[in-house]
Design brief:
The chain crosses the membrane at residues 14-32. By secondary structure, the protein is of the alpha+beta class. The protein has helices at residues 8-11, 14-33, 72-80, 166-169, 199-205, 255-260; strands at 36-48, 54-56, 63-71, 85-88, 95-100, 113-118, 121-141, 148-156, 159-165, 175-181, 189-194, 209-218, 220-233, 242-243, 246-254, 268-273, 282-284, 286-289, 299-304, 307-310.
Length: 312
């Protein structure tokens, strides 16, 4: 006897079966049905835990290129995240350190596969971090104008502490400025000047400037000028009553004035104050040089004699 199929089995628990169908279809869409994307993304390296007394001494590639494959939705979510490749340098020592960029070391969302990593290796040169105080030497060219000379040239600061890899810093004994042109200078000046740095130091210090203070002065010539007449002030003594009536003056005179003055005695004025005579009738002699515009003042070194007597 043929039995009739029980169709109620198909309709029994229909709500649960419908829900299972919807869930299955959704999973199929997200896992199988969603478009898959192949993409190359750039991921930065993140150096961690480098000891304070060490430094990376070479230029290295700070990003890697990673070819990934996965559902479009996951790829888009991944690109919104700050994903990096952490490198732990806690146990680093001076020398060459080769970092292998393994696909499994990159933390990507589940469902995204790493196809390729470029470059596969990165080499870091680890060096000791040192500090060195280097003196800055000014570099000049040319000569000041005729009749002038460089009195001094100072830099501020006069030295700089350089911090960097030991293999770089130990090679340097001093720093120097770019060339300072003194050709034709006839006055003092203060200005900024760049340091002349090699490529390695330029990476450590960047474009560095210091202040240069250039002091230019007239060339002074020491001369002894004899027979400078003495004038009497604040008194009624005749000139002939002084003994001696002239003095010799040793002085530093601008070289240009020496060449332009036929009689150097014209550059000095000697005098005594009659009211200042002492008990033995001696008067101190005062001498000053004539100041000429545009020139340094004359400097009196000695006066001979430095006192004169009033004759009875």
């Amino acid at each position: 006897m043929r039995t009739t199929p029980d169709l109620t089995v198909l309709t029994r628990h229909w709500l649960l079966k419908l829900l299972s169908l919807i869930i299955g279809a959704s999973l199929w869409y997200f896992v199988v049905g969603e478009d898959r994307v192949d993409l190359v993304v750039t991921i930065p390296l993140e150096l961690r835990n480098l000891p304070a007394d060490l430094v990376i001494a070479n230029q290295y590639k700070k990003e890697i290129e990673v070819a990934v494959s996965g559902p479009r939705r996951l790829i888009q979510e991944m690109r919104r995240q700050n994903i990096s490749l952490p490198i732990n340098l806690e146990k680093a020592t001076p020398g060459a350190l080769v970092i292998k960029n393994e696909p499994e070391s990159i933390a990507l969302p589940r469902g995204i596969a790493v196809q390729r990593v470029q470059p596969a290796n990165i080499t870091l040169l680890v060096d000791r971090l040192v500090h060195k105080d280097l003196t800055i030497t000014p570099v000049t060219k040319g000569k000041p104008a005729a009749g002038f000379e460089l009195q001094r040239l100072t830099l501020s600061p006069a030295h700089i502490i350089v911090t960097g890899p030991q293999t770089v810093v130990d090679k340097e004994q001093a720093l120097s400025t770019s060339t300072i042109d003194l050709e034709g200078a006839d006055r003092s000046s203060t200005f900024q000047v760049h340091l002349d740095l090699n490529e390695a130091l330029l990476k450590l210090l960047g474009e560095t400037v210091v202040e240069a203070n250039v002091v230019i002065r007239e060339i002074m010539v020491r001369k002894v000028v004899r027979d400078v007449p003495i004038n009497i002030k604040a008194g009624d003594l005749p000139t002939g009553k002084l003994a001696p009536a002239t003095v010799s003056v040793e002085a530093d005179i601008p070289e240009q004035i020496v060449h332009a003055t036929p009689e150097l005695v014209m550059l000095f004025r000697a005098s005594v104050n009659a009211a200042a005579k002492s008990a033995n009738n001696e008067l101190p002699v005062q001498v000053h040089g004539i100041n000429l515009p545009g020139h340094a003042p004359i400097v009196i070194v000695t006066i001979t004699p430095n006192t004169v007597r009033i004759l009875p």
